[in-house]
Write a structure and sequence with these properties.
The structure holds two protein chains of two kinds. Chain A has three domains: 106 residues, Ubiquitin-like (UB roll) (Roll); 166 residues, Alpha-Beta Plaits, CATH 3.30.70.20; 233 residues, Rossmann fold, CATH 3.40.50. Helices cover 25% and strands 17% of the residues of chain A. Chain A is built from 17 helices and 24 strands. In chain A, the strands form six sheets. In chain A, strands 16-15-21-20-19-17-18 form a seven-stranded mixed beta sheet. In chain A, helix 3 crosses helix 4 and helix 9 packs parallel to helix 14. The radius of gyration of chain B is 23 Å and the shape is globular. Chain B has three domains: 212 residues, NADH-ubiquinone oxidoreductase 51kDa subunit (Rossmann fold), CATH 3.40.50; 101 residues, Ubiquitin-like (UB roll) (Roll); 96 residues, Up-down Bundle (de novo design (two linked rop proteins)). The longest helix of chain B is centred in the C-terminal third of the chain and has 33 residues. Classes of the chains: A alpha+beta, B alpha/beta. At the A-B interface, helix 3 of A face helix 13, helix 14 and helix 15 of B.
Chain lengths: 584, 454
């Protein structure tokens, strides 16, 4: 983004059409910018990795305006137009950078013929086991073979034999016969993950991808190699042979692992999630995400999932539990333990509830070690949300000592706990027994076991909402799968609690857009024009000026630098969008 | 035309009593040119080399002076000089003789070149199989260092440069200059993409680097001795200096012969210099510049125009042995490996042999070469093994056409030119092979004799 705004635009000619592109951009990207479904097919090139130029699929014809060598003057044809000196051989688009006046042909006979040749070569030793290959349906080789191949084989010799099931690491299995040796995985491990573990052994047509001796592909980004593998060579051991990808529904979501807020795509079918993959957002996570973040959906089907509304352990209807909660909260002496895992919408409700029953709000920090890439120190997705909604105005503490004191002194009689196990946070079960607990959460724990009221909550995959990440980027997630049977969405149940507290009538079925109308009115940081539905896919950067004095724990990672962030937001508080671009 | 060899680089090769130690070299006037060179201005030497018109002896025939001119001197990075001694083109055996018998000539040439381009360090990348040559070079460098012909403050000139000998590990692709640089840096010898990695700008360790062939670097010494113009007088305009022709195959006296460019025709080289073919045999074909050069058929007529516009009409024996003439007849002088084939040669087997080599040596980095060349090998192997089909000739040509010009380095051309030219000139033999095998199969006879490709 930043680069494009600074670098000058130049005019090049693609297939007879003059187009403006940023100077120095490569031809693959330039053609993509032209749009209209135009594409230079490629395997080894990846926008976020170095250029290898080895697949030879992105061949284009290139020509430059002719100049007289001696005088430097333009050579004109009979019509007075400068002649184009076409190169006799095709060049690769990935390593050819746009320069003024450059002419490109992406579909000439020579280009078609060389793509056809490359496709044929890639297929002769390929097992062609698409019917049993996981990549089928999202395989570049399959797509380009249909588009650019000749449709029949001239190869009657024996194919090369290579290892079929190499375990590269705990999560990745390799089928070497399918590998087209594009080296994307090697470059990714080296350049992005910073763990140089992959390489080729043997030579020529026998080249085989493998791990270096004594190493394995176990870093927390190993599954990205599966994503960027253009064929079915690197497969996720978890997803392998589970599902055909064309049956899967894709839903945009946000990773909840840390405050990075990596953009993700949830792949589900009939209410079951099969995998999570990263979604490109150049300001947040490029095209990557952690392995650990991909496994979070497994908690959906965990045995300790809360699926029933209960009062004193007895199964009740949601309305009964909501009413009971209202009654309890109206008695006063309430403490609220919020969560940075809640969505912005839920936090807005908790803030409302806390105001209406005069509750003291505390939040607990979940910090860990950052990896400098896409796993930040703050292991909650929405701490900024709690600040923006006003739920808290200070950074959270590690323990709830103050609350323990308040309980013991009798100042607190009721605790509304959101997704936190209080017994782990400095409140022993003896202390906890002194108060009535309303527990809202996704999974059972020691607190939910002793809670007076239990309100099951939905996981991020099961509801609509939004989070605010480390750089105050508001990002939206959508429902991928339905929640457990009978469990209502959090905002529906919270409306039933919050409204009666102010003697209002609860909206019968609160839609998220309706809630957003209230939110933009109330919350200063949210521009009034904003609505949940109209949030762009890449998110919106909010004005963070009010929170710059807080010392957030995140250190520098892939797209976030605390120092630069602060500077950018101090300098251009008037134009948060521009600030976001600087920071990106 | 005289049939006298013009021995310039090979002056002392095989000379009675000539040894490869420094005393013998100095006694024969050695290191005098280096002494002269360090008193000259580096840019003057470069200019002399440019004037001399000396062209690269490694295969491509690119003017060395021009190559030096492309050197990126503004970057402020150190400049490296690399001697390409990875002589691995089948049919070529000249560099080894220089290294074994006259290593100091190479060292002197290299130091002159290093001084001219102001290299910080020089490397000799020597083919892994040349272990003897490696030892000889190591000793020679030690001797030269003792006498201050290299090392710190060479001959009191204030210029310092050393030579490091680096052994390859047995791969043809290490002779490709960017592959060589990768290998020198300790990686797999995968050639780099050009652009952006032109050695003159981003070579060894991403610094400007000049890679020259052994013979080319030896020429530098002689250019200093004779001056650029003096050197240019040898040979013909555009084809200056001498060339060492390594003649192998079906001739009576195979070996290396040094002639001024254009001084001798192919026919003279075979018949007079190498003693002709074996009795009763007829010339069938010649590969004039190492196995990757396009083959020339004995009964062809070559007509066309030379660079300077003169028309020619030659039989195979009339072709003058120089860069431009061989290029004009559709082949190349390459590395100077002349492979002669007489009428006993089975062209299918000959091609199968060449394909076997290239399939084995493809580095495997880019698709067309990695997949296409072994495919050609499999096809020719199958033909030799008795399963030839009449359509195989066209298939081979089509595969080769899909490789040439589509790869990262020139290996693609090196591997497809033989196939393209064999099919273009001997297609009838490939088709005949299939027919013959089919006929034998019908008769119930053994289809193919056992052939071992090496």
């Amino acid at each position: 983004m930043n680069i494009q705004s600074i670098v000058e635009n130049i005019t090049i000619n693609i297939d007879g059409q003059d187009v403006e592109v940023p100077k120095g951009i490569n031809i693959i990207e330039a053609v993509k910018m032209v749009g209209k479904g135009k594409e230079v097919p490629h395997y080894c090139y990846h926008p976020k990795l170095s250029v290898a130029g080895n697949c030879r699929m992105c061949m284009v014809e290139m020509g430059m305006p002719m100049r007289d060598r001696a005088t430097g003057e333009a050579i004109l044809d009979e019509n007075g137009v400068q002649k184009i000196g076409w190169m006799p051989k095709p060049t690769i688009g990935c390593a050819t950078n746009a320069s003024p006046g450059m002419h490109i042909r992406t579909n000439s006979e020579m280009v078609k013929e060389s793509r056809n040749g490359v496709t044929e070569f890639l297929l002769i030793n390929h097992p062609l086991d698409c019917p049993i290959c996981d990549q089928a349906g999202e395989c570049r080789l399959q797509e380009f073979s249909a588009e650019h191949g000749r449709g029949y084989s001239r190869f009657i010799e024996k194919k090369n034999v290579k290892p079929k099931r190499t375990t590269l690491g705990p999560r990745v299995t390799l089928d070497d016969e399918r590998c087209i040796l594009c080296s994307r995985c090697i470059r990714f491990s080296k350049e992005v993950a910073g763990d140089d573990v992959l390489g080729f052994v043997d030579r020529g047509t026998y080249s085989t991808l493998t791990c270096f001796p004594g190493k394995d592909l176990s870093h927390n980004y190993s599954l990205n190699t599966v994503d960027i593998c253009p064929v079915g060579a690197l497969t996720s051991t978890d997803f392998r042979f589970k599902m055909r990808v064309w049956f899967l529904k894709r839903t945009d979501s946000i990773c909840t692992e840390s405050s990075v807020g990596a953009n993700t795509e949830i792949w589900s079918r009939e209410g079951k999630i099969y995998r999570i993959t990263p979604r490109r957002n150049d300001a947040v996570n490029d095209t990557w995400m952690t392995d650990s973040g991909r496994a979070l959906y497994k908690a959906i089907e965990s045995d300790d999932r809360l699926v029933q509304y209960t009062i004193e352990g007895v199964h009740k209807s949601p309305e009964e539990v909501a009413n009971a909660a209202v009654e309890l909260l109206q008695l006063g002496d309430v403490a609220l333990v919020g969560s940075a895992h809640s969505s912005l919408e839920e936090q807005f409700f908790y803030k409302t509830i806390a105001e209406r029953c005069g509750a003291k709000v505390s939040l607990v920090s979940h910090y860990g070690e950052g990896d400098g890439l896409l796993l930040s120190e703050d292991r909650s997705p929405n701490l900024r949300g709690a600040l923006v909604t006003g739920l808290i105005d200070q950074l959270p503490e590690a323990k709830l000592d103050a609350l323990a004191h308040d309980i013991n002194s009798g100042a607190v009689k009721t605790v509304l706990a959101v997704n936190e196990d209080l017994t782990q946070l400095g409140i022993d079960s003896e202390t906890l027994a002194k108060v009535k607990v309303i527990y809202v959460g996704t999974h059972a724990n020691k607190t939910s076991q002793v809670a007076h009221l239990v309100i099951p909550s939905l996981m991020v995959f099961e509801k609509d909402g939004s989070f605010i990440n480390q750089s105050f980027r508001l990002q939206r997630f959508k429902t991928a799968v339905p929640g457990p049977r009978g469990v209502k969405s959090d905002i529906t149940i919270l409306e039933k609690i919050a409204a009666p507290l102010a003697q209002e009538k609860a909206a019968p079925a609160l839609a998220i857009d309706e809630l957003w109308l209230r939110m933009v009115k109330t919350l200063a940081s949210l521009p009034e024009s904003l609505s949940w539905r109209s949030l762009p896919d890449e998110g919106v950067v909010l004005d963070a000026k009010a929170f710059l004095d807080l010392s957030f724990v995140e250190t520098k990672n892939l797209k976030y630098d605390p120092v630069a962030f602060k500077e950018a937001h101090t300098a251009s508080a008037q134009a948060p969008a521009a600030a976001a671009q600087e920071e990106a | 035309m005289a049939l006298q060899e013009t021995r310039l680089i090979f002056k002392h090769i095989d000379e009675e009593g000539y040894t490869n130690d420094i005393d013998c070299y100095v006694k024969n006037g050695g290191y005098e040119q280096l002494k002269k060179a360090v008193t000259m201005k580096p840019e003057d030497i470069c200019a002399e080399v440019l004037t001399s018109g000396v062209r690269g002896r490694g295969g491509a025939g690119f003017p060395a002076g021009m190559k030096w001119k492309f050197l990126d001197r503004k970057s402020g990075k150190p400049i490296y000089l690399v001697c390409n001694a990875d002589e691995s083109e089948p049919g070529t055996f000249k560099d080894r003789q220089i290294i074994h018998q006259d290593p100091h000539q190479l060292i002197e040439g290299m130091m002159c070149a290093a001084f001219a381009i102001q290299a910080k360090l020089a490397f000799i990348y020597i083919r892994g199989e040349f272990f003897q040559g490696y030892k000889i070079l190591e000793r020679a460098i030690e001797e030269a260092r003792e006498k201050n012909f290299l090392g710190d403050n060479i001959l009191g000139s204030g210029y310092s440069c050393d030579i490091i000998v680096h052994r390859g590990a047995g791969a043809y692709i290490c002779g490709e200059e960017t592959g060589l640089i990768e290998s020198l840096e300790g990686f797999r010898a995968n050639p780099r993409i050009k652009p952006p990695y032109f050695p003159a700008a981003l070579g060894a360790y991403q610094c400007p680097t000049i890679v020259n062939n052994v013979e080319t670097l030896c020429d530098v010494k002689h250019i200093i001795e004779m001056g650029g113009e003096g050197f240019a007088k040898i040979g013909t305009p555009g084809n200056t200096g001498t060339r060492i022709w390594c003649v192998s195959g079906h001739v009576q006296k195979p070996g290396y012969y040094e002639f001024a460019c254009g001084d001798v025709t192919l026919g003279q080289l075979i018949n007079d210099v190498c003693g002709g073919l074996k009795p009763g045999r007829k010339l069938k074909a010649v590969i004039p510049g190492g196995s990757s050069a396009k083959i020339l058929r004995a009964d062809e007529r070559f007509t066309g125009k030379l660079k300077d516009g003169t028309e020619f009409d030659w039989g195979i024996e009339d072709i003058p042995m120089d860069f431009d003439s061989l290029a004009a007849v559709g082949s190349m002088s390459g590395s100077g490996g002349v492979i002669v084939m007489d009428d006993t040669t089975d062209m299918v087997e000959a091609l199968a042999n060449i394909n076997y080599f290239y399939a084995h040596e493809s580095c495997g980095q880019c698709t067309p070469c990695r997949e296409g060349v072994p495919w050609m090998r499999k096809v020719t192997q199958r033909m030799v093994d008795g399963e030839a089909r009449e359509e195989d000739a066209d298939l081979l040509k089509s595969i080769a056409d899909q490789i040439a010009g589509r790869t990262i380095c020139a290996f693609g051309e090196a591997a497809s030119w033989p196939v393209q030219s064999f099919i273009a000139k001997f297609k009838d033999e490939f088709v005949e092979k299939a027919k013959e095998q089919a006929a034998r199969r019908k008769e119930g006879e053994e289809v193919a004799k056992e052939t071992t490709l090496i």
